[in-house]
Amino acid sequence: MIVCITEKPSVAKDIAQILGATVRRDGYYESVDPACPYKVTWTYGHLCCLKDPGDYMEAWKYWALGRLPMIPPKFGIKLIPEESIERQFHCIESLIAQAAEVINCGDAGQEGELIQRWVMQKAGIKCPVKRLWISSLTDDSIRAGFQDLKPESDFQNLYLAGLSRAIGDWILGINATRLYSLKYSSPGKVLSVGRVQTPTLALLVQRHYEIQNFKPEDTWELRTNYRDVVFSSTGKKYKTQEAAQEAVDAIAPLPFNVTDVAEKKGKEAPPRLFDLTSLQVECNKKWGWTADETLRLIQSLYEKKVTTYPRVDTTYLTDDIYKKVPDILRMMTPYASVTAPILAKPKIPKSKKVFDNSKVTDHHAIIPTGQSPTVLVGQERPLYHLIAMRFIAAFYPDCEFTTTTVQGKVGDVGFKVTGKVINSPGWRVLFDNDKSNADDKPKDDDNDKILPPFTVGESGPHTPSFVKKTSQPPKYYTEGTLLRAMETAGKTVDDETLREAMKENGIGRPSTRAAIIETLFKRRYIYRERKNIMVSQAGISLIETINEELLKSAKLTGIWENKLRKIERGEYSAGEFIDELKQLITTIVYNVLNDNSAKKIEIPAEEEKKKSKGKKK
User: Fold this and answer.
1) Model confidence over 23-37: pLDDT tens digits?
2) Per-residue b/e over 251-273, b at no fewer than 16 CB within 10 Å?
């Protein structure tokens, strides 16, 4: 008998149908045909977790500064004490005991590997294990996956990375939370501290102070109108209106001279395909969806077989997907009018900005599977449309344009104007009549306007003026911009190529960032004002109280994330990573215990009102 263990009942049902195990039993599917050796069961996500402190030592059940740090000699797992979980686990345990082979059909990612490994370990598995590794739940993908099952050993480093992450979070999260709660909070109040949530909160607190301490400055810049075109000064900015007026008066009688006319042809490539973070960012920008809402919706699309695996951190496809693209496009019948121009070509374009094996680890970018989206409901529909149009656009030509830059002088003051003409819209035609996708068009610094012809050497009268500019503070984080900041360890990055390179040092994983943000809301460290994320006084006080940079630095936490990725690739030792965190928490405990400042962190009543009000929005 071969036992297949999936992560959800719905996935078990799909796989059981493919394998012919169509009879539903209590906790699993099987076949009445003796020729079909499969039984298909499922978990409900995590059935097991790391043991609590009190499971290792009776004294650790009770919160006391003198018992910190708590570092077990060896970490262990336990079954989550819930009736439904215990019942399903005992079903899996019984099936494994009878199995000649087990196939791990968990979600194909770090968390999915950890979930299944823990269940199999807890069940005392002794038979061989193989791994189903697929990027979509379509029937064809499942069949292909079962024809190419992998040995469990291929994913040992993936498991070790997930295990290291879980143990690291336990060491820092449990010890630091007890430490700061006992030292700085009121009796019975918990101050939640975590390896990822605390540096994320620190980003928000830093932005809070940048805005609070910002002092606006006024400057005045020269403009001049020549032949009904407004030119901007390329020279200095003036600190007073009087100085700007003097400059205007000085150049008003002088002629405007055209000194240079330059035309430059350019191209804009289609937007990159979506990874999970960029999808969450886009949905927050377009519709105000939270990261958690988008994650739940895209997970639903994956389980309904219309899109590929969602918890990914790459915007690229592997080369083997290229041959599947025509069939996917043909099956996308609701989009036939816009896929037809691609399919009419003798060969579909293959860009290195779309296909690059070196940029893909576990899974490729999120794309449609080609399955009909008629099963979708509510917000699932616009989300699918967003992904479908991004996928189709990837195979359209670049947008081609001509940028014209005209420079001139009045006396010794330089002026410039830039205009752009679209010569061939390329991929932009897909979004010209689609207001919901207007944001897919690139934002340009250049003015999208057509200029009249100018000739070098021409001159004539002009009308100078000035305009007042006031410097603006940084903007509050939204969920979208916070996700981007987590991905780049707090650095502002607009260039997509550079963004890809920085993901190695991002904080958190694409699949966990939404949960981290939700945790900060639940802990009342942050709250919403419309789309903006605001920091509560408790959140500010916590970050000000934590003196250990390693606990609150996005950059340093990004280094830990980089090490976890190296563990996954077999380039770094899981033992070294855990030892580093053990040393770190020991140092933190020592430093905090020696703090005699008598600080206390409280949540004022008025802050409670703010948070509850913000949560409703």
Assistant:
1) 999 999 998 888 889
2) beebebbbeebeeeeeebbbbbb
